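#lab-general

N.A. 3:47 PM
ok so I finally got the sequence cleaned up, no stray characters, all 524 residues accounted for. can someone with queue access submit it? mine expired

B.Y. 3:52 PM
send it over

N.A. 3:53 PM
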Amino acid sequence: MKYLVLIMISFLVAECTNAQAQVTNTEDLPKITYAQMLSEHDSLVSYIKQTSPVIYYNKEVRGIDFNRYARQLKKKITPKTSMGEYLQIIKKTLNVSQDGHTSQLNATLLDIVNKYWVPAKLVSFDSASTVNMYKYVKYLKEAYYAKPELNLIYTSGEYYNLLAFNYKGKSYPSGMKLLSCNGKSIHDFVKTLTTLVSPLRWDRMRNRVYDENFYWPAEIYKNGTLKLVFADKNKNRYNLHIAKQDTVTYLTKKSNDYGYFSQTDTVVTHYFEKSGIFYAKIPAMREELGDTIKRRMALVFDHHKVKSIVIDIRGNGGGSDNTYSKFLRKIVRDTLKKKVVVARNFSPYIQAHYHINRDSVLKNKTFTFDPGVPTLKSPEMYYIKQNFNFVVPDTLTLPFDGKIYVLQDKFIYSSASNLSSLAKNSEQLVSIGETPDLLGGLQASTLMIMLPYSKFIFRVEPQIDLTDIKRVGDIFQNHVEYPVQYTIEHLQLRTTTKEHIYGKDFLEKHDPMFEKVLELEHKK
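B.Y. 4:20 PM
back already:
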């Protein structure tokens, strides 16, 4: 089991917050030679090719050729390349992997690595050697990203601005549809950002990528300005030519965020007397939060008849699978399990890291070279097949035989996405909401790698989930049983309301996903 359990929170959102200060002086950055840059870039590409199965999925299914992009990026390294320019080339090369778990380390992850991973000897470097990376994080945060924040949202296949704003004396209404960027249709423009934005989301219904923060990379501001064209509901057009160091003034106050880890509360729980629903909102898969829900749930069962349970994981970017097991094992009737099939590259680096070879794979009962499911054309991979028990009922469970509804939006990832997948495979659990438009499935602890000369640290996802697939495209994994799409009007309400959006009143009166729960309970 230890091969498959995610052991740390997946901070999917790298430090992409907009720069508020002047760009770090590149003279303060460590220096390496031109020859070292070339050699180190080769090492980076080799590590990714040996470690990441996702890049091969991306090439076969999505047409993203990592090798081609990596060659083009290496050509940008010249004897005159500054250290700052080199760091941006490294970042772009990681971006081309187009995987949420393959990225540079940010400051939060660096702190976690120094506090937990280094003492446990889970990485090959020590804390002293991470000093350079803290400098790189600061530099890239300030140099790579522009300042504007436009609060765009992608829903029903289009981009809209959530809040009305003012820029240089001109007012722009909320709910405008974005038509174009820098002279290209917005959808054509975003698909050119493979090296600049990662991970680009994939709208499977329309077979195209999107990203609501596509305007963050400073590089897209031609001559320092981004040119956007919007249309309001009456088809009136608005041109926004905004400089990369400028900000807009919002005409409506933003009360709530909509994205990963957007809930600031720890855990929110309610009991709805009329419907007999116990509701729990969990913002991240941290095990102590699972314990909190378990305690509060037991107290409710002591005093009320619980007919159904709602687990709200909207905005939950992941963490440990043990988190939801903490409370689900008190209420599930049967073991939540899957016949898991995951794949890893059979490369020299992976063989050394996991201490395997061809003979050990052939002799191991859970390892195989023949998984019995569709596989990628390349590279050579080995497969782990296990009956994996995610949640095993306690011997003493609570008196409950109703449905467990899982509310999800597109901002779930990692172990939160695993819970959604379990719902799809369980009669008792029911998933409701939006499909997360990122590659999902059971992932492993990312591998942390330090480049030899710059001491740049990055992580790579070493595993891809083939469970229950019928074709290679199914590796995307994410599904939802009862789709509920947010309207732009609801998102505007959700963003600006003074009410607690996870409070009882808002859930009952204004929340379309909770409304779906009530509808299904009424039918039942």
